[in-house]
């Protein structure tokens, strides 16, 4: 499994003057693969990575993640904030 958040990656991006994009993911309970991304308030989740919402500010992502965990307490443990990976 890939590392979800790396302090070294964050520090390197900040030193380069770039913002670090975050996204909110929904992971599988069995093998921890990403099965959905937060896509916005109207749709909440999407299985298409092209629709994932990126957050430049981690605080914004934390607020939305907290709201999603309150809406879906059964899935709270598999809703995570992660560094957004570059799309290929």
Gyration radius from CA atoms, angstroms = 13 Å
Q: Major sheet, described briefly?
A: 4 strands, antiparallel
Structural class: alpha+beta
Give the termini distance in whole angstroms: 19 Å
Widest β-sheet, arrangement of strands:
3-2-1-4
Shape assignment = globular
Percent strand: 15-25%
Could you give the count of β-strands? 4
Could you characterize what this model shows?
The protein has 88 residues and is α+β, with helices and mostly antiparallel strands. 26% of the residues lie in helices and 24% in strands. It contains 2 helices and 4 strands; from the N terminus they run αβββαβ. The protein has a 4-stranded antiparallel sheet, covered by helices on one side. A hairpin with a 3-residue loop joins β2 (34-40) and β3.
Question: What is this entry, summarized?
Answer:
The chain is α+β, with helices and mostly antiparallel strands and 88 residues long. The protein has helices at residues 7-15, 58-71, and strands at 22-27, 34-40, 44-46, 79-83.
């Amino acid at each position: 499994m890939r590392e979800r958040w790396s302090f070294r990656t964050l520090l390197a991006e900040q030193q380069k003057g770039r913002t670090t994009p975050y996204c909110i993911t929904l992971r599988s309970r069995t093998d921890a693969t990403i099965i959905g991304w937060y896509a916005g308030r109207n749709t909440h989740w999407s299985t298409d990575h092209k629709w994932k919402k990126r957050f430049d500010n981690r605080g914004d992502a934390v607020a939305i993640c907290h709201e999603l965990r309150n809406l879906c307490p059964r899935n709270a443990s598999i809703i995570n904030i992660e560094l957004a990976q570059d799309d290929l």
